[in-house]
Design a protein that fits this description.
This protein has 293 residues and is α+β, with helices and mostly antiparallel strands. 27% of the residues lie in helices and 24% in strands. It has six helices and 16 strands.
């Protein structure tokens, strides 16, 4: 029987704590849960009020990996849920609102993925996201070059953008926006990707077609669609090593010269949070959110 612990007055069952989830580094489930508890103060604001999709990998990234969007069976009745519109009819999804629900969800062993809108107002986006995905032999170093161009371009429209690692091969750029639908944000993001390709045709592609992507950075604008989700800040990814989708500074982006420079593991991220706090905290200032031209 799984041991029960109390988290903020809630009883949470934590199972298989000694299981090694990442053989490459020896990271155990207990260590993964400890990481999430350590960064909860900065992670929770990025999850709160956003319906969460879980990419689950209960036996580690080498085992079965599957998406869960609906409320999982056995979810405690104290976990907050919300009805979410879908083309096939409304569904109910989890909201990770507090430390107890975070630890319950982390015990499922999951990547956290969120929409660019909050529950109750799916018609209006409050975030813009650009996913920079390198097609080998392009790497994150090339993504950084594209990110710097996009940062300057967005600044011309009065939009401040922030960077985080994807936790995989590339980078995510995030900006706060207001007064626009997901459809309008998608249109704007696509226009940016097209413009980036025109400015750097040898380096950028805006279309998803696989045959176009080797050696280039795919600027994926499509994750702004209302139905799409993106890996949340501070989530550990289901990859061979437990890389985190972690915020980075623009100085780190500009100075990146090697593939492994922006690979951040849980212990490193926890230390960065202790030193810097949340580098993405400005995203929560609605007064600073940009308006699309």
């Amino acid at each position: 029987m799984a041991p029960i612990t109390e988290v903020d007055g809630r009883r949470v069952a934590l199972s298989n704590l000694d299981k090694v989830l990442y053989p490459a580094t020896g990271l155990t489930k207990a260590e993964l849960l400890h990481y999430y508890a350590t960064v909860a103060e900065v992670l929770l604001p990025h999850l709160r009020d956003r319906p969460v999709s879980f990419l689950r990998y209960p036996d580690g990234p080498d085992g079965q990996v599957f998406f869960t969007k609906n409320v999982p069976p056995g979810t405690p009745d104290w976990v907050t849920t919300a009805e979410v519109p879908r083309s096939e009819g409304p569904a109910r999804m989890v909201l990770v609102q507090d430390l107890a629900s975070l630890m319950w969800a982390a015990n499922l062993v999951t990547e956290f993925h969120t929409h660019q809108w909050v529950a109750g107002d799916p018609a209006e986006a409050d975030r813009l996201v650009l996913d920079l995905d390198p097609g080998p032999p392009a790497t994150v170093v090339d993504c950084c070059q594209v990110a710097l161009w996009l940062r300057e371009r967005l600044a011309r429209d009065g939009i401040e953008v922030y960077a985080k690692t994807s936790g995989a091969k590339g980078l995510h750029l995030l900006a706060g926006v207001r007064g626009a639908s997901s459809e309008r944000v998608s249109e704007y993001a696509k226009a940016l990707a097209v413009e980036a390709e025109a400015a750097m045709p040898e380096l950028v592609v805006h279309r998803m077609t696989r045959s176009l992507r080797p050696g280039k950075v795919f600027v994926d604008w499509s994750q702004n669609a209302a139905r799409k989700t993106t890996a949340a800040p501070y989530t550990v990814r289901a990859r061979a090593e437990p890389a985190v989708s972690a915020p980075v500074t623009w100085e780190e982006v500009a100075g990146c010269r090697a593939v492994d420079e922006l690979v951040l593991l849980p212990g490193e991220v926890a230390a960065r949070v202790a030193e810097y706090g949340d580098l993405l905290a400005p995203l929560f200032d609605r007064r600073a959110a940009g308006e699309l031209p």
